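Notes continue from the previous slide.

Worked example: a multi-chain complex. Inputs as given:
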Amino acid sequence: MDFRFTQEEEGFRQEVREFLDKELPSDWPGVDPDMYHEDAFDDIHEVSREMQRKLAAKGWLGLTWPKEYGGQAQPLWKQIILEQEMTYRGAPGLDAYEFIGGMGDLLLQFGTEEQKQRYIPRMVRGEAKGATGMSEPNAGSDLASLQLKAELQGDYFILNGQKTWQSAAHRADFAPVYVRTDPEAYKHRGISILIVEYNTPGITMRRLEMMSGLGAFNEMFFDNVKVPKENLLGEINGGWKITMAALSHERSYGIMLLININRDLDLLVQYCKETHVNGKPLAKNPLIRNRLAEVAIQLEVARNLGYRLNYLALTGGDVVATANHIKVLGGVVTQRVAQLGMQILGLYSQLGPVGGNWRQMDEKKDKWARLGGRMKHLYLSTVCNTIAAGTTEVARNAIAMGLGLPREPKPQPKK
Amino acid sequence: MDLSYSEEQEMLWKSARDFLANKVPKTMVREMEEDEKGYVPEVWKEMADLGWIGLPFAEKYGGGGFSFLDLVVLLEEMGRACLPGPFLSTVVLGAMPIAEWGTEEQKQSILPKVCKGDAILTLALTEPSARYDAASVQVKATPQGDDYVISGTKLFVHDAHIADYVIVAARTSESANPEDGITLFIVDGKSPGISTVLLRTIAGDKQCEFTLDNVKVPKANILGQPNQAWDMVKKIIEWASMAKAAEMMGGAQQVLEMTIDYAKERVQFDRPIGSFQIIQHYLADMSIDVDSSRVSLHKAAWMLSEGIPCTKEVSVIKGWLNEVYRRATAQSHQIHGAIGFTKDHDLELYFRRAKAAELFYGDADFHREIVAQQLGL
């Protein structure tokens, strides 16, 4: 057993840090890995696209992807380190969860040669943004209930229906969209995945505002949208199998949440050291010390579990159980940090601009905000960390199944 | 022991619920978050006509002569409806202190206007140290002939920007004990030297930076005894905590009902999500939280109305509801899933208000310390 990184790994980490020192403004407060800042604010989106191009120029977009599609065929440990460093700094442009994992890795695993050639090089060059088209009004946790219809007519699938909670859709060029190709089949057995170009006629979007004030997701309406049959990913009605396979590779989301919130915990610690109330530093207040330590313990334990998840991914082990554990911990621990941040800031926690610690501070309305209103933003935005990309309830069910516990009997239909 | 509402209290909450459901839709609540004044004058006038603004004040000033407990019954409905505006500031922070400790002249001059809905009041206590203890009152008031001159900055002052009268806590003499030397002044909101900045807050409520720059206040405007105001301030903090706790009670009850309805309607996996055991347990816990709060709220409010010392009981319920309201809204969000996370949905109104209410006149730590003292620790 050896918990140290190799010299080669540390060397690459240093390279990434130097890249970020050079490319990010020195006062960069950090975006969150869920992409909501980048999707909601045009100016941050611009920085994100710029960073994406710079990553592409270094060959760091699609680092592990095969050379024949423009990737660097680098080992997974480099991708992991890149994600760690970028996430801790809150650096935009990589979008490891959706872009790399949800689209690129998925295409590489299940796509045809033609599809790979069509999409991967564009992605590697930093010329595209992605999204994922899963949720519908009646298909949240019960994704298999989705209804967006795709009927094969000649050379095209014709799509009709609706999606919702589509984050990044208003910025995306294309995305894998989950559709129902067999309305007669039972739920998941009739689902396919189509790669849809989001500028196809018939697609309209309505931006939704989140409780954090960020307009970062959308309702999407599909009205006779024509998608070429060549855009089918995998087999027709074989979409669920792909989803399950994708989940078994799922590595990033929970870990990213934890690394990201580490930045905020460090911010809180610094704040407590620098802030005096009635002559005494907050850092010496026993209640605050105790609570910060409690959260720090939870975060460190969760981060260490993240190292195990990465180790399993690197050695071809079974990641599913640990990925589910991390998904739950990521959501819960981020919420605890946010709640503690609000408690520490007290009355000041109420203040600040929408989105927190960005250049939209109003010199009057926000003049008393501390930490740029970051804690307020976190408090509002972390509510969805136990919901998005799979609720903690669903994750716990999956964990229970993994433990071999018997499935809850289905209620008998009334006669 | 009688834990039931009086007939008047029954009528009060039912008519309040109807009125607020009709006159204060959630669209208005949202508009008022963006609105600078933060309330609709027509609705304020109607509330005055209904006798709400004068509810706890003596009939000789135009009030209704109701008790603090009756006020709490009304405030629960206001919290349920997320009523925006300066009701709590005017009635509890501003007018109740005057009714309790004012000279006859002060009462005659201000209370009838309040009851008619013609005056808005508030209290300026907290300063940038953002605490509710005596040592934090640093703004100075210096005697000058028949006046005092007050200079300094108060922060997190609710509705200061629209207030006709602001009760300002200022330090009039230095002493080894910080609780000595504090005086309350009734300051005319239009006095030269006053400036306000409206802050952007999590709940869109109107909290201000309130700055006094050599503001002259006649000695006749001192409320109660000079240099001995801290006991009054402690009482006002109790009233404020109770009033806010009442609003929180109403809000938490609404959140519980909203979530039960959703759990019954929302179908996933071919069944209402309320049929899943974990959702049932979440809601059961929420119901325990919310239901248990009501008795303790009413006990503390009844004791206050009866003039029975209830420092511990007030801190028990504010401390408790600080946790309960926050927990209820967070759990409700979890049960609602993504739909509760949008601005289109009412739930996030309650989530943000729960946080603001938690901080208003004492977060959990503040009230736990009071309980600890009451325990003799």
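Summary box: Residues 207 and 267 of chain B are 41 Å apart (CA to CA). Chain B has a mean pLDDT of 97.
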